[in-house]
Amino acid sequence: MFHGGGWFVYMRNGGEEAKPRVTRALLLRVLAYARPYRLQIAILLGMILVTAGLGLLTPLIFRDLIDTALPNSDAIRLNWLAVGLVAIPIISGVIRVFQRKVNAGIGEGVIYDLRVSLFEHLQRMSLRFFTNTKTGELMSRLNNDVVGAQRAISSTIVDIITNLVTVVATLGVMLALEWRLTVLGVLVLPFFILVARRLGGRLRDIARQQMEYNAQMNAMMNETLNISGALLVKLFGRIPNEVQRFDNRAAQVRDTGVLQAVWGSRFFVLISMVSVIGTALVYWVGGHLVLDGVFTVGTIVAFGSYLTQLYGPLQSLTNAPVDFATSMVSFERVFEVIDLPLEISDKPDALELDDVRGELVFEDVAFKYEVKSEGLLSDVERIGRMDNVRAVLSGDSALAGKPGAAHPPTSQAREDALQDVSFSIQPGQLAALVGPSGAGKTTMTYLIPRLYDPTGGRILLDGHDLRDVKLESLAEQIGMVTQETYLFHDTIRTNLLYARLDASDAELVAASRAANIHDFIMGLPDGYDTIVGERGYRLSGGEKQRLALARVILKNPRILVLDEATSHLDSQSEALIQDALKTVMQGRTSIVIAHRLSTILAADVILVMDRGRVVERGTHHDLLAEGGLYAQLYETQFSREREMV
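Request: output the structure for the sequence above.
Response:
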């Protein structure tokens, strides 16, 4: 399988676990991110060589101490050797502190570069990408995978280089001292590697299983401990069920944790036994050679120290290829996002909107919610990690192989959301969109700020095709209140200022008054500094909608798009807002999806939609006289309000 342009290849041999393989293209791209830190990397490598060299001196000091200073009663030599035994670890410790600082600087620098690039690219992705991508997967790319990429540079690669330098240098010194003892010490390596492979593989399997159980437990907590999940659990009286389900998953995590600890202890015991056998073999054969006068006692002692320095790095290097490739998979997953094409972007010669009048024209516009995998994230298995949990409550593993891409919303059981939509709205006019559910009203409004681009036809603003206009300047001219009001978990003031960061307090209050929310805000203990809670859950639906209206009023756009913006308000609040909106809409082009008769009666033109088409247009009285779909909707949806008008 190839993912992310083929940088990373997953191999599966027989029934064995999948193993990642690093490709040249991936390595070159990773090195490109490390290029700005060339000087720091050179300094880091220099310090690694120095600390490795210092580590080789201690056994030689012991040999000289035993073979020369003590037998010859050389007190001065003994004093200097003692100073060396103290000085070497002190110097090595100081160097390692600076080495860690440089290493952390490189790793954190890379994680900063990757995270900013990733976040910036995600911000520019189209709405289709977000409607077809799990939020948890995006968070995993921004957090786990970016941190994994940082770990590959600052930890995994550094450890491999350090271990390689240590092994090569240690073997070189051992061969220079006594080649026969070196061969004896290396003889145990096949057994060493065999134990590490067998038990290490079992440990990885257990760790992977524990990660999967942890992921399922965390996913369940995420689903049931947020506001919406907690509300659902309480409404259906499922608290005992959820506690039992969580108990089961927590027990699985506990049991695999115990199993991992037991197998981990077995692993280290057997590894230690192999190391002890190698060391004992060297001392046994070396002792006989000492008795025969071949070499000195100090040489054997030095060899014992070198064997300790040799076996530790060798143990790490046995799994180095898999560890390195596993850590590099994070880069592949980050690069996959960065390389996703932008569906909606500025043309090189895009126009900067200025002095917008607000004439809006749809010419034969068609739109289809296409089902395609291009431009979306792929389901790439994280080797060694279980981040993808598709069945949160059931835990059905059979779902794991099913594709997770979301299907586009259906609209009145048809393939095309919009077909041959043509109309024009003059500057300052109020257009009301009316039609049955799923007729395409919301889809039409999404095309105006270019959340989507039409699949056919074009949309003109003051005669300019929206695809020829800079997105940023287009966003400045359009104010939109969506059907689902979203507020940040922050203060009311911060949420309102999101529309215009430089707005004054007076402008903030004026916008709030226009939306009939100022008096409510002032009645709160902290006023405009009140925290609204996650997604604004501390406020009622009507209060959130009025805040959303105040926010768009503060933005002061040339075009207003209101998607059922007054649907959750009581009649009194709606009447006050309608009066305010008359002033706000004056001189602006306004498109309103309305289910209230009062909004429709105030419209200059009513566009009646059905099955993705504009089937009727005109004023309220003209459409009633036609006796078509609008007249039917008027009789069914607005009969109660009609009696009050």
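The chain has two domains: 7-338, 418-644.
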